[in-house]
Amino acid sequence: MAAYAVAVAVCLSLSLSFVFSFRIQTLYPDRISLSGCHPSHQPHPRTLRFDQFTVLINGYSESRLPLLQSIAATYSASPLVASVLVLWGNPSTPPLTLAQLAHNLSVSSAVISLIPQASSSLNARFLPRSSIGTRAVLVCDDDVEVDLKTVEFAFRMWRGDPKRLIGIFVRSHDIDMRRKGWIYTVHPDKYSIVLTKFMMMKIEYLFKYSCEGGAPMREMRRMVDEMRNCEDILMNFVVAEETNAGPMMVGAERVRDWGDPRNEDDDGVRLVREVGLSSRRAEHRKRRGDCITEFHRAFGRMPLRYSYAKLVSSVGEQGLCKKGDNLVLCDQ
Fold first, then answer.
1. What is the mean pLDDT of residues 180-190?
2. β-strands 166-167, 248-250: how paired?
3. CB atoms < 10 A from the CB of 285, how many?
4. Of 232, 265, 267, 331, which residue is the catalytic one?
5. Cβ neighbours of residue 193 closer than 8 Å, sequence gap 6 or more
6. E strand or H helix that includes residue 321
7. Distance from the first to the final alpha carbon of the chain
8. Cβ atoms of residues 95 and 19 within 8 Å
9. Is 232 a catalytic residue?
């Protein structure tokens, strides 16, 4: 009985110690938020791995934790992934919950780390981090599942043109002649924006977004915080300004977007869809159009450029042949 009491006491002590460490991390979660923009925190490209990439998953809602853990484990299974950093953006999450999440993630894979953020700012997902040891980073959400074949194909395409943004989900900017203003929309044949549901880029863009641009960029990051939206659009502006080129879209084999409002109602899907950090209200497109207008004003010009291609991992036969009583693709 005495031995049992001692064991319980030891376990309780370890648990409280673990929770306390996470409480400290929540209060002072990542010193990079204060010093990440110092030139010493910007690694030289020669010191970074080019044959692997780092995954940055933005997390916020406790109701998505099972899905988040599954997504992180999937990414970590790829030999091309050097590490998976789960950026937890909800400072109000209880320390015990964070401790349990950290434990679950570490059991799943040694390459997964939990990093609590100081605030819920969407800008934090683009903070430079000294723990990133790769040239490429994949910024993604906690409600989108992507098959590993697509993930690895996207990385190969990025290596072919590392200055460009690579993504799966795309949107467009356009001009509304009647309103004489910019709008956020979808075109069937062109795009100019990739979303942070899945966005691959070179690490230097994290520094450029968070640390450069002077007063105009500070104003635009402030706007992202106020609207709780549009950080992906701003990153597209930053990269297009640098490259004078549009992003690149890759075709996906299988992508499950749990947060898409077009999902048919189901208790589990609804719970995932209705929580999150970015605004998903009815006026979502209008608000993002307002972001484009304000970013255009701050930049002094419109840097976004259209792209027209979709990169695919395989090219099959497109001709139709009669087989039996049916017309099917000839290579089937």
1. 94
2. parallel
3. 13
4. 232
5. 170, 171, 172, 173, 184, 232, 233, 236, 247, 304
6. strand 320-323
7. 69
8. yes
9. yes
